Amino acid sequence: MHRKKKIIILSHCILNQNSVVHPLARAKGAYTAIIEKILQEEIGIIQLPCPELLHLGENRPPMTKKEYDTPEFRRLCKTLLQNTMMQIQEYQRNGYEILGILGINESPTCSLLEERGVLMEEFESALSNAKIKLPLLGVPADYLEGEAHENFFTTLYAFLGN
Question: Does residue 94 register a pLDDT over 90?
Fold first, then answer.
């Protein structure tokens, strides 16, 4: 079977809003419009783990990056990223193009803004150690499924290679 050999890496909650802190979920299940675009382009997906969910559970309170930025949480992030790194390296060894990382702006773990989230800091460190450089794009903090976000989708289309 023909493979396009293109993959994008997504923050966990882009595919599963059930993992988001209760008052902050912005979709019923997934960011459908984003996922539909990725699928239309026949791009494979690597879903990052959600360290917040695994660290404090589904009923955790909203917390800041500073509150998550502990040695224990960083160790969890590093451990969770090991499988992701093995997947990336295996795909690259076999000629796949990793298009980049789609994170969540202003997330304490998955932000790709100037102040990175804890998971993304650890991910960038692991990528750097493996000499892998990937483009980054963050879903805006005001993104709400079902609303028009023309600027973001224009940027996403370019990010996906359109």
Answer: yes
